[in-house]
Amino acid sequence: MSGLPLAARVALWVSAAWRAGAPTGGALDEALAAAHAGVDDVVGDPRATLDRWRREGERFLFVALPRPGAVLGMPPAAPDAVGAALDCGEAVLAPTVGGLLVPDLRLFGPAGDQGVQVCWTAYPAGPLPHHLVEAADAAAASRGLADAVRVATRRLEEAGGIPWRALERLGPTGDAASLPGGLDPRAVEVLERAARVVVLASAGLAGEQAGAALDAATSQGRRLALGALAHAATSALAEAANACVVDRDAQPSRGAQPSTDR
C-alpha cells in the first residue's frame, strides 16, 4: 500500500493472523512476508519477539508514528527506545503486555541496483494505558484528517497557491488489496486517505525545498501549512491503523512488566 509505513503493515498483518487463530507456524510467516513486501533483506528476529508477546497474552499490535515534539501513542520506554523510534519515525508495539519493535530501513547495493534492508530491534516498554487503547477510533481519525485538509487548503490559498488541485477531494488510493482481509472498511478508507495525504504533503514540502515558490514569504507559508498537514495526516494514519486491529474484548495486563527483549 503506497505510503503505508512498514510498522503499520506489520501491525495489520500480524494482528489479522492472530485474530484468525494463527499464533505460530506458516500462516504467521506468510503474514510477515506480506507485510515486508518490497523489502529485500530482513535483519534481526522480529518473529521471536512477536511469538513471545503472543505467549504473554497479546492479541493485537499497534503502530506508533512518533516525530519530534509529537510522541503521542508511544508507551513508557527508556530514552534509547524512544530515540530509536523517533529516528525512523515508526514502531510496532504490544499495547497490552508491553514492548517495542523498531525498524531501521536502509538502502544497500550499487547505484541503479539498490535494495531495501530493514533491521528490527526489540526494546523493553510498558503497556499503553487502557484509555489510549480504547481511544483508537476511525471516525475520530477521519474527522481530524478532514479538518486538517480544510485548514491546509485555506492556508495554502492564503500563502499564494496550492501545489496540487482539489486537495479536499482526495479519495482512496485503491491499494486496499495489499492489506489483510477482514478489516473494518471504514477504517481502511481512512487509512488509505491518510496515507495519500502524507505522500502528497511530503511531495509538496519537497517541492518547496526545491524552490517552487517565487518568493521566500510564499514558500514559508506553504511549508508551514504542508508540515502541519503532514503531521495531522500521520496521526490520522496511526489512529486508523490501530482502529483496524483493536480488540475491544481484550483487557490490558494490569501491572505488566516491561519486556526485557533487546
Strand composition percent? 5-15%
Strand element count = 5
Number of domains: 2
- Number of helices in the DSSP assignment: 8
* N→C terminal distance: 29 Å
Strand-and-helix sequence, N→C? HHEHEHEEEHHHH
Q: Please state the overall shape, judged from the principal axes of the Cα atoms.
A: globular
User: What average pLDDT do the residues reach?
Assistant: 85
Radius of gyration, CA atoms, in whole angstroms: 19 Å
Biggest β-sheet description: 5 strands, mixed
Strand order of the largest sheet: 1-5-4-3-2
Helix content: 40-55%
The structure class reads alpha+beta
Low-confidence spans: 165-174, 250-260
In brief:
The chain is an alpha+beta fold and 262 residues long.
Verbal overview:
Helix content is 48%, strand content 10%. The chain is of the alpha+beta class and 262 residues long. It contains eight helices and five strands. The protein folds into two domains: 6-127, no CATH class; 138-241, no CATH class. The protein is globular. The model is unreliable at 165-174 and 250-260 (pLDDT under 50). The chain starts with 5 loop residues before the first helix and ends in a 17-residue tail after the last helix. α6 packs parallel to α7 (185-209) and α7 (185-209) packs antiparallel against α8 (216-245). β3 and β4 form a beta hairpin.
